[in-house]
Amino acid sequence: MTSPLTPVTLGTDQARTRLDELTVIDVRTPAEYASGHLPGALNIPLDHVRRALPEIRHAAERGDVLLVCASGARSKNACTLLAEQGVPTATLAGGTSAWAAQGHDLHHPAVCATTPAGWSMERQVRLTAGTLVLLGLLLGLLVHPAFQLLSAGVAGGLVFSALTDTCGMAVVLAKLPHNRPRAADLDTALAALRGR
User: Fold this and answer.
1) Which of 64, 96, 117, 181 is an S-S bond match for 186, by CB 3.0 to 4.6 Å?
2) Is there a catalytic annotation at residue 69?
3) 51 contact partners, CB below 8 Å, separation of at least 6
4) Is the pLDDT of residue 117 over 50?
């Protein structure tokens, strides 16, 4: 019996020096990916990683695979999921945020030059949480005090999110149409992985 794989973490400078030899997969939503990603990165959102397992396994058999997200949390989850399936991968410490903070270039697709960049998942969560808290307080004042429980629930969810480094609200928001990959885009990314 083989022991489970342990995901590897690469620093931004390590990843930059090896970028040409790595297959980079960005597990963020398409809107986040379009707002700027590592050069050459393919977009396979976290909730599509299982579907892409055969293609990712194929790429990992031919070279090292680096998974990337905004901060490193989602890519770490994807690395763990793939390790359980026997697929060796690495994650980028600090994600694209750390990459950009180190002064490394992010690729911005030509589409982004003419259309507004998508909001990061963190920004979407902040807007949604803030709106729900304000709505709970307003309805609590104007309709019935019990509506303030909505605000308390959101606050509790944010605390839980911070303690567990997970975010249920982000999972729900990722299912919205503007955060879903178009079938053609996902098929193109999977075909590119098969060609590696």
Assistant:
1) 181
2) yes
3) none
4) yes
